[in-house]
Structure formats: C-alpha cells, structure tokens
C-alpha cells in the first residue's frame, strides 16, 4: 500500500516561504516572499487534514477546491493541481499573493483551530500557478466554437477580466473598455509591486488578448464613447468600474499642499515601476523621498501607502488609526510586515485638522479610546479630551476608503438604479440590473471589497449571461 501522503500536520510544522530580510526588501519593490521549492510545497500541502467539512473551501468566496489541489500537490501531480485550481479561480496566482488568507481560507483551517498552525494555502496556490506558467501549462483561450453574440465590459479590473475570461472560453465576442492605458485596474495601478509584481498581471492581460478579448484602453465612458453607444453595440453590457472616488476629510487645513489621496500616491508609484514619466512624482509632490510621512487609515490601502513610503526613502512613516490593533480592518500580516520595515503605528489616534502655511507641516491628532459597540458590533472610538498633539509631517496621505462615482449622472443614465450608498443596484448572484441586458459586478455593487469577491462576481455574472444568451438563441431557433 502506498504511504499516506496527507495528514502530516502533527509531524510537520507550518512553514511559510522564506521572507526577505526587512533591510533588504525595504530598498526595492520586489515581492517579499521567495517561492517554495517543490519539496517544500509538497511537504506543506501534505499537512492538510482532508477533513470531511472543508471550512477553508466554504470560507473562500470562490469555493476553491482547496483540499483537492493540496492533495494533488502533495502527491507531486502538479499539473492536475493547477487544472483543479484554475477550474474555479480565473487568477489563482494573484489570489495566492494578495488575498487576506488569514481572514478567509487559512483563518478557517481546521488544524489551525486545533493548535497545529494552518496549512499555508495561499503560498501553495501561488506556487502551483507560477509553476504552471513556467511549464507552459497556461495557454491562450481557444473556444470550441465561436458565437455571434457580443458582450461589452466597462472596467478592466479583476471583476471585468474574470467575466471576460469565462465569456471568451464559451466563444462569446468580448470587448473591454477601460480609462487607463493598461488593463488590470487596481491590480495594475493600486497594489504595489512588493505584494503583486506587475509582470504577473501583464501576462494575464496578454493571455486574454491572445485569446481574443478586445481591449479599448484610454477610453473614458461618457467622454470618448457614450454608454448608449456601448449598449447598442453589444448583446449585454457588464459594468465593472470599481470604486475610485476617495473619501475625504472636511476639517481645518484640509486644503493645504502636501495632503494627498492614497490612489494618486499609489498610482504614481506604480507608473514609475513601469518606467512611465510621472510629472507629479518627479516634481516631488507624490514622492515620499526625504519626507516625514503620515498615513491616515487602517485598511489594506493604508498598509500599501506606508510600505511604499518606506521604499521611496521617507525619513519617517507613521500610520494614524482611530481604533486599536485588534479592530483594524487591514491584514494583521501586513501590519507585521510594515512594522518590520520601520513603520510606526499610532493606535487610537485620529486627525482633527492640519497645520501649515501653504504646505502641511503637521497633523493635529486627538487621542481616542474605545467605547460602546456601534451598529456593526465594533467598539466606537471616543475622543479623550485634553490629549491632543501635533504630529509633524511633510506629506499626509489619506487612505480612508473609496466610494462609487455617480455613474447615472456621468453616463446620462438616470434609470440606472443605485442604492443609498451610490453603488449600482444589482442582483448579487447574476449581477443583473433593472435595465435589460445591463449587469454590474464587483466593488461598484458591493462597495470597496476584496479582489477575490470581484472575481467571484465576474464569473457568476458571465455564467448568467451565457444562460440568458442560450435561452434567447433557443427561442429564436424555434
């Protein structure tokens, strides 16, 4: 009988890929984790308990068949592991890098709950698909047959690209419209290279283009082309624009120079990584070099900003967050990485204004304590009177989250229904809106959320469109 390759979590400890030394990694924008060697990937995959109720799969938005591809990896059947992984996830190598596994699959791992340390699901997922690319197992899309129907997708972020992938595999003609000059959305211009190196995103874009997805880039809907024109050219339209409108702070001094939006700061940095000319960066406005930087916010975008500032050569980087460490929304793994790299976190601290003449020179900070829970169950921060101070700063970055733009007005589509939060009103399963043939997916429906949820929405929406198109074709044939 063959030796059991699984259930080794008692004999083998959890072991993440080697993390580069903080002094080394803060000097560049390369990813901070090394790749698993084949032996190590097999070893870590073998720790999976193959439990009867795989909570890791249940708590993954894509319901990835995690135990199956872990077992195949442990058995050395890596190409099969890739096929199983790819069956439910359009971009497994991206999710393996940027998903907050500690809050999703790994956080629900049964052996983690029993005190043995979770299986390193994300690192193995990344290894499987990186190997698939290296071995040439990832091929351009080749539909079994071409279909005459076409779908227009507005937005080349993860939700739009996931939908494009599913539709093209079914032979549907797909055109993706995006305002940026490169596809990928926040994967390209929002997430720094130390979390997601850009060649990883670009090769997926190239795979989609080679498979027949048409991209119309530098195309602003409402200016370069109207929504009505797009709708007239396609059998269905998917709105996958994401949410890019930054939340702001209305307080004394908020109009001073040197107070910038997180998305502008991160986009400038990522454009430089492509070798683009970025005037706002080169002039020093969106560049942290030699500056005292204060980032306001506690989510993953704030973590991206503080760690980018470190790499740009800031003299100091501090993060203000109004709650404590346990209540911050960002990944705890990211907080630890940031601290190792030299970021200082000022917990229970919130801005009340800014000081300076024409340019900011400091943030007026008020200290907080946690009081009674709010409507979401989280403890509400309360001001501690008389504990204010000024935090010196040359550059302040607001990472307060994102809101949807007013698409019905921008696109002259008053009948496009929105919620009270400004997000598009759409069915969460199919993405269908009240407008015939118009769908919406990702953050523009959910509000700012995770990449993995956008991928899920895009895939589900594409499946719903395919069903609708097939039904329409069957009726026409009668």
TrEMBL record:
Superkingdom per UniProt: Bacteria
Give the keywords, sorted: 4Fe-4S, Iron, Iron-sulfur, Metal-binding, NADP, Oxidoreductase
**A GO MF term:** oxidoreductase activity
**Which cofactors go with this protein?**
[4Fe-4S] cluster
In terms of InterPro entries, this protein maps to:
DPD_II, FAD/NAD-bd_sf, FAD/NAD-binding_dom, GltD-like, Helical_ferredxn
Which SUPFAM superfamilies does the protein's record reference?
A: alpha-helical ferredoxin, Nucleotide-binding domain
One Pfam annotation reads Fer4_20
Instruction: Cite the FAD/NAD(P)-binding domain residue spans from the record.
Output: 151-458
The residues covered by the Dihydroprymidine dehydrogenase domain are: 26-136
For this protein, the record's PANTHER family field holds: GLUTAMATE SYNTHASE [NADPH] SMALL CHAIN, GLUTAMATE SYNTHASE [NADPH] SMALL CHAIN-RELATED
Question: How is this protein named in the record?
Answer: Glutamate synthase (NADPH) small subunit
Source species of the chain: Sedimentitalea nanhaiensis
């Amino acid at each position: 009988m063959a030796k059991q390759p699984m259930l080794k979590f008692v004999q083998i400890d959890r072991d993440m890929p080697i993390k580069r030394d903080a002094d080394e990694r803060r000097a560049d924008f390369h990813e901070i984790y090394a790749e698993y060697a084949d032996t190590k990937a097999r070893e870590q995959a073998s720790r999976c308990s193959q439990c009867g109720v795989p909570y890791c799969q249940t708590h993954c938005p894509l319901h990835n068949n995690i135990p199956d591809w872990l077992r195949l990896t442990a058995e050395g059947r890596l190409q099969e592991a890739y096929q199983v992984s790819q069956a439910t996830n359009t971009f497994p190598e991206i999710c393996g890098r940027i998903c907050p596994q500690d809050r999703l699959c790994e956080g629900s791992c049964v052996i983690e709950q029993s005190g043995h340390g979770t299986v390193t699901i994300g690192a193995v997922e990344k290894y499987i698909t990186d190997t698939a690319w290296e071995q040439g197992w990832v091929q351009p899309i080749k539909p079994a047959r071409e279909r005459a129907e076409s779908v227009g997708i507005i937005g080349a972020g993860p939700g739009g690209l996931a939908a494009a992938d599913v539709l093209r595999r079914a032979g549907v003609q797909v055109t993706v419209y995006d305002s940026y000059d490169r596809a990928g959305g926040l994967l390209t211009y929002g997430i720094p290279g130390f979390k997601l190196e850009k060649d990883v995103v670009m090769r997926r874009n190239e795979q989609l283009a080679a498979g027949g997805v048409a991209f119309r880039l530098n195309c602003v809907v409402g200016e370069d082309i109207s929504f009505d024109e797009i709708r007239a050219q396609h059998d269905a339209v998917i709105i996958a624009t994401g949410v890019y409108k930054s939340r702001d702070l209305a307080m004394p001094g908020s109009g001073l120079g040197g107070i910038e939006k997180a998305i502008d700061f991160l986009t400038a940095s990522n454009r430089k990584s492509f070798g683009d000319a970025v005037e706002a960066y080169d002039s020093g406005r969106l560049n942290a070099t030699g500056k005292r930087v204060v980032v306001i916010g506690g989510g993953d975008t704030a973590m991206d900003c503080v760690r980018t500032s470190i790499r740009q050569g800031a003299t100091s980087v501090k993060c203000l967050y109004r709650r404590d460490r346990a209540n911050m929304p960002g990944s705890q793994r990211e907080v630890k990485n940031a601290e190792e790299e030299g970021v200082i976190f000022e917990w229970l601290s919130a801005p009340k204004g800014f000081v300076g003449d024409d340019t900011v020179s400091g943030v007026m900070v008020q200290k907080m304590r946690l009081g009674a829970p709010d409507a979401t169950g989280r403890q509400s921060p309360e001001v501690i009177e008389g504990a204010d101070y000024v935090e010196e700063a040359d550059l302040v970055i607001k990472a307060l989250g994102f809101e949807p733009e007013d698409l019905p007005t921008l696109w002259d589509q008053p009948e496009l229904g929105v919620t009270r939060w400004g997000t598009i009103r759409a069915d969460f399963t199919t993405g269908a809106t009240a407008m015939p043939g118009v769908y919406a997916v990702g953050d523009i429906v959910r509000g700012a959320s995770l990449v993995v949820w956008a991928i899920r929405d895009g895939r589900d929406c594409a499946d719903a469109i395919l069903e609708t198109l097939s039904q329409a074709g069957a009726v026409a044939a009668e």
